[in-house]
Amino acid sequence: MTQPVGSSTALPPTPAPPATTLGALRASGHVLRGVKAEIRDNLLAAMRAGTPRFPGIVGFDTTVLPELERALLAGHDVVLLGERGQGKTRLVRSLVALLDEWTPVIEGSELGEHPFEPITPASRRLVAERGDDVPVTWRHRSERYAEKLATPDTSVGDLIGDVDPVRIAEGRTLGDPETIHFGLVPRTHRGIFAVNELPDLAERIQVSLLNVLEERDVQVRGYTLRLPLDVLVMASANPEDYTNRGRIITPLKDRFGAEVRTHYPLDLDLETALVRQEAELVAEVPEHLLEVVARFTRAVREAPAVDDRSGVSARFAVAGAETVAAAALRRAALTGDDPVARVGDLDTVVTTLRGKVEFEAGEEGREDEVLAHLLRTSVAATFRARLAGADLSGFTALVADGGSVSTGPLVTAKDLLAQVGTVPGLSAVLTRLDAAPAGADGDDVPSPGRAAAAVEMVLEGLHLTRRLGKDRLDGTGGRAGGAAGEPDERTVYGG
Predict the structure, then answer these.
(1) Which helix (H) or strand (E) holds 319?
(2) pLDDT tens-digit profile of 63-101?
(3) Which residues of 171-194 are buried (b: 16+ CB within 10 A; e: fewer)?
(4) What's the CATH number for 22-261?
């Protein structure tokens, strides 16, 4: 189906040009350009102006994007190769921003033909009969993009077109080109057509795209109809799909002008930035916890127990951050606490995300154990990176002489902070964990939720670095923070 890009309900930022007839369009000085020339010109203009060319794309600035820009400047159709969740579809959709905001089309034309260059018999006949009085309308660039997920049941009719039995029933003859119901590719004339997971398309269906990519025309059954299509074809594929689920047939690969390899974020900062951009968080998740989620994702991706051929999608990290936020929101709803996530909320991630990971064949039954271990190492690594060299003696002193600090899914921030009291070095810890912004009263005191998140991170980090002990107590249906009937599960940090 056609996939509009951007908001379909919001008004476009600028009004359409005023020309409403072919004559008025000619008088305005409008110049016809092919879609690839249009993209090239707009890309060059953006490069010269220093404006963003691919909004919302993170981590590809020095690798993927230069290759893609060279392909677009060359006027090539492109295959993006990469494992799942690397942003291939997002990247393709961002190309719509390189189209002209408005383009003229013959009003009512089935394929959105340019008034200067009609390609269907009906539009040619209309231009010949009415000349400069041909009505013109304007199409926004968000309507010039079509996307098809390649599935085994996709047909040539879906992509190219087929005979329309309704038109035949209306009395037209089989030889009449106007009995054709056009598919997605012709309907994307003068736009961008994208095929996701191209190797999943049956090989006999892939053959139907050969003419589109080389001769730029389509053939529908036995009709002697040549449609000189103007379209940029983009495709995405997983490299493993060449040999597993399917493959891109050699003649089709040969017709794509460029092959661009995508990848997961190359460093931690980019991984964290991607999570921050994509996650829809229902509660506050401190920066150090987003870093833990990013480290966890990278650790899972590199773990020997995980099948590296399937990849670990960026959606894994996004879902992890959203799950942590949801745990904080649940606590807030049950106890009236600040909706701020804490390190204990990370425990919910393992069971939620294990279905997103493909493990090696010998790891059956150990999935939770592997993920839990990797999560602990990610928390410890973040603790060391954020608090290396910090004086944490005030926190270890809390459990001296048999003392303890308890927390849990339903322990409020105020209850946790009341156990801690005034701790030497807390201010420096809050700063290092990005928990020091002004609180609700506008002073320099962080909110209780942020302060509790920082304290719990320190306690967990000290435990993981073997400076504090930890015990888990199962709930027995008691109350915690006023939540009747909720199990009072506790984590107790002690000496």
Answers:
(1) helix 314-335
(2) 999 999 999 999 999 999 998 889 999 999 999 999 999
(3) eeeeeeeebbebbbbbbbbbbbbb
(4) 3.40.50.300
